[in-house]
Amino acid sequence: MKKFAVFGNPIAQSLSPTIHQMFAEQVGETISYEKILAPVDGFVGAAKAFLAQEGAVGCNVTMPFKLDAFNLAKVDDQAAKDAQAVNTLMNSINGEVLGYNTDGVGLVNDLLNSGVEIEGKRVLLIGAGGAARGVISPLLKAGAASLTIANRTKAKADEVATAASNPKVQVVALEDIASVAPHIIINSTAASLSNELPCSLEDGVLQHCEVVYDMVYKNSPTRFMRDAAELGVKTQIDGLGMLVEQAAEAFYIWTQKRPDTSDIVKRVRVIVEQGEKR
Ligand code: NDP
After folding, report:
1. What pLDDT, in 10s, does the model give residues 61-77?
2. CB–CB of 86/100 below 8 Å?
3. What is the DSSP code string of 215-229?
4. Per the domain annotation, does 278 fall within a domain?
5. What is the pLDDT of residues 17-76, one digit of tens each?
């Protein structure tokens, strides 16, 4: 049997085993997929031990180990190189551990599946953590006209923009985001987890905004999404579709089989809405 796992800390809440089992069932594979809680300073040993097991094909990597995974793996994937972060590891046939980042493809595919046009749009990316880094080059490849980063700690946004090294990537202070006149605002911060807004949505910030996207998903729309709706933004999307799409891309890397995600997003949504353990 092909073996997979997801590493994180914490990890109990992860929906990845459920999602990958749904993919496997759909494409006729029999897999095992476990959650592994690695100690904060013990990811590399735990991942190597897992990948050395008979039948181990690969694993997913979530917070806080994406940088450790980048350092562990041989990385040819441009998205992972650009992000300096890896969320998918795979044993290669010649014994190397290869690293990929599927977060950005996941976000772009979810936006496109939701009917959002990215080409020619001004994108405002709130946040400068691992998730933000992973989506910059895929959004630019999808045709964003500009990508402006704003973060609570501005120095981190500067760092991320410098690493991106692309004239379309700029930084703005959180207080000045209205000057971007964004068409699409992506909240890549963890603020929604504590029911906070990462920035003010008042004072003209939303004047041209067509879509707000919150990478966090909960059993109901986040405050960021609700406030944007009240202020007239037509489309609000949470990160559940991104979660499923990044998983689908990882599944494809591992098995060369691409699951149909539309039904699976709906099934996972039901699980989240019912507040079942994930
Ligand atoms: P990091 O810890 O690397 O970065 C966290 C970011 O959130 C930083 O920019 C931080 O700002 C900001 N932040 C945290 N709390 C607040 C707050 N109260 N107000 C404003 N900004 C805040 O995390 P990641 O980038 O890896 O993940 C961020 C979020 O994205 C998580 O909630 C995660 O669940 C979600 N995510 C969803 C995915 C999906 O598939 N749907 C995939 C990956 C992530 P500062 O730099 O100032 O500390």
Report:
1. 999 999 999 999 999 99
2. yes
3. S---SS--HHHHHHH
4. no
5. 999 999 999 999 999 999 999 999 999 999 999 999 999 999 999 999 999 999 999 999
CA–CA dist 138, 145 (Å, integer): 13
pLDDT at 130: 86
The response to whether residue 198 sits with its C-beta less than 6 Å from ligand 1 reads yes
Q: Which atom of ligand 1 is found nearest the CA of 194?
A: 18
What is the maximum alpha-carbon separation in the chain? 58
Provide the domain limits for residue 85: 2-101+241-273
CATH number at residue 109: 3.40.50.720
Pocket test for ligand 1, best of 7, 19, 105, 152 (most atoms within 8 A of CB): 152
What is the 78 CA–ligand 1 centroid distance (Å)?
22
Give the model confidence (pLDDT) of 169-219 as tens digits. Answer: 999 999 999 999 999 999 999 999 999 999 999 999 999 999 999 999 999
